[in-house]
Input
Amino acid sequence: MHWTLVIPVKSLARAKSRLSDAAGDGLRPGLALAFAQDTVAAALICPAVRDVAVVTDDALAGRELAALGARIVTDEPSGGLNAALAHGAATVRAERPEIPVAALNADLPALRPPELARVLEAAGEFPRAFLPDAAAIGTTLLAAAPGRELLPAFGTDSRARHRASGAVELGLGGVDSVRQDVDTGDDLRAALALGVGPRTAAATARLLIPGQ
Output
């Protein structure tokens, strides 16, 4: 089974405000872009991934991620994260309704293609499935089989909301790189410990991160 991934990227100027303890206002947009670039680059070389659609209205993010090979879908609803994901899934399925689709966070800079492949293989056993984040509160991946709606419910307490929606929680071990999203300085330190992609490594080299 080969998947289409839908990855949402918000305006870089407004991204990663919770990283203020690790990076100033002028650095956070570059960090957010680096996270997205490393996430998309890793996803595109995953053997279980057919293609990647990035939903964004940010011109710079669109150019940089398209250069990596992602398809760019304009965030026409402009209605927030879940509306963007639903729109992205509907757009790719309008052309290929038979494909399985998975929403993936854009802030997984330590993402490893073999681990992503394991998660997608496990998700393929269910109509809808999701992977909780490292904090066990949120969600980093939500998958839907062909013919099933994605029904994204990302945001606060998304783990509980996706479970309540009927999606199966994937209890996989050994896929830390797919769980480790980055919202805070502690998250960034955890991702760096796992080993981040080259763009994030370059972007964080200028930061003084306590405890790193």
User: Anything to note?
Assistant: Strands lie at 3-8, 49-55, 71-73, 101-104, 128-132, 139-144, 168-169. The chain has eight helices and seven strands. The two ends are 39 Å apart (CA to CA).
